[in-house]
């Protein structure tokens, strides 16, 4: 099985054999570079079913199908957010308004061996936007939050403050995210990064008290690794969470 996750700024594919990931690759893209990026992703040719998570907009759907067909991939399914699926019940009155990547991440986290049976789980996906969702031990989605990701936050600040400038490389350095900065570039990045970490930490602690039960945090997304390292609470980092969700949905729909 081949799974493809098309987010707001990145495309990632994972190849599964006997339920386990054996290969994967990811690249950033834009509307103009979408076709060329797909061709450079090194998608496996031929094979079985393709499961896709697409939040980038419907205009990309037909383009992706055309490109996959060129790779002799014809059995293509696009995941959709449901009222209930794989043991998880959605809290949204209109489930279709929830990004399918959030839904898939919740499904994978709820079914994950990383958490104990009956344990609530907090799913944190760190990308262009950061989403945080809590699912209780019975699979009920208690709700979620959406906030700007690190890159989005940095770019918004620079766009609104004409005298602030960041170099793409210098501004991307988050190695000292828990320290004070000695340059404008690092002050912006570290300030935004620490805001992300402290914000997530405070939200998790507050809701852990509210639900009055054990809460396992599982983190994913392009910025997930440094968030996982910098977060004060115990957590697990799973970069393929959405893809595990796609695999679970595919298995249920057989």
From TrEMBL:
Q: Which SUPFAM superfamilies match?
A: Actin-like ATPase domain (SSF53067)
| Molecular function as annotated in GO | ATP binding; pantothenate kinase activity
What are the subcellular locations of this protein?
A: Cytoplasm
Q: What is its main location?
A: cytoplasm
- Enumerate the UniProt keywords alphabetically: ATP-binding, Coenzyme A biosynthesis, Cytoplasm, Kinase, Nucleotide-binding, Potassium, Transferase
Q: Which cofactor does it need?
A: K(+)
Q: Does the keyword Nucleotide-binding apply?
A: yes
For biological process, the GO terms are: coenzyme A biosynthetic process
Note the Gene3D superfamilies from the entry: 3.30.420.40
Cytoplasm found in the keyword field: yes
Identify one Gene Ontology CC term for this UniProt entry: cytoplasm
**Family annotation (InterPro entries):** ATPase_NBD, Type_III_PanK
Q: How does it assemble?
A: Homodimer.
Q: Which family does it belong to?
A: Belongs to the type III pantothenate kinase family.
The name this protein goes by in its record = Type III pantothenate kinase
Which organism does this record belong to? hydrothermal vent metagenome
């Amino acid at each position: 099985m081949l799974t493809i996750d098309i987010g707001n700024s990145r495309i990632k594919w994972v190849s599964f054999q006997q339920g386990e990931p054996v290969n994967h690759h990811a690249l950033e893209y834009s509307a103009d570079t979408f076709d060329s990026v797909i061709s450079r992703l090194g998608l496996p040719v031929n094979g079985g079913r393709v499961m896709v998570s697409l939040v980038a907009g419907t205009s990309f759907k037909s383009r992706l199908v055309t490109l996959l067909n060129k790779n002799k991939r014809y059995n293509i399914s696009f995941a959709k957010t449901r009222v209930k699926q794989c043991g998880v019940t959605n809290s949204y009155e209109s489930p279709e308004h929830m990004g399918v990547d959030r839904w898939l991440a919740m499904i994978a986290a709820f079914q994950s061996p990383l958490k104990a049976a009956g344990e609530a789980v907090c799913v944190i996906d760190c990308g262009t936007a950061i989403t945080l969702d809590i699912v209780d031990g019975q699979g009920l989605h208690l709700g979620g939050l959406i906030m700007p990701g690190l890159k989005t936050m940095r770019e918004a600040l620079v766009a609104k403050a004409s005298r602030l400038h960041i170099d793409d490389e210098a501004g991307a350095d988050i190695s000292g995210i828990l320290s004070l900065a000695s340059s404008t570039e690092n002050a912006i990045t570290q300030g935004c990064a620490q805001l992300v970490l402290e914000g997530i930490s405070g939200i998790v602690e507050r809701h852990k008290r509210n639900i009055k039960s054990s809460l396992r945090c599982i983190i994913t997304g392009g910025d997930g690794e440094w968030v996982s390292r910098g977060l004060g609470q115990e957590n697990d980092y799973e970069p393929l969470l959405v893809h595990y969700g796609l695999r679970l949905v595919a298995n249920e729909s057989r």
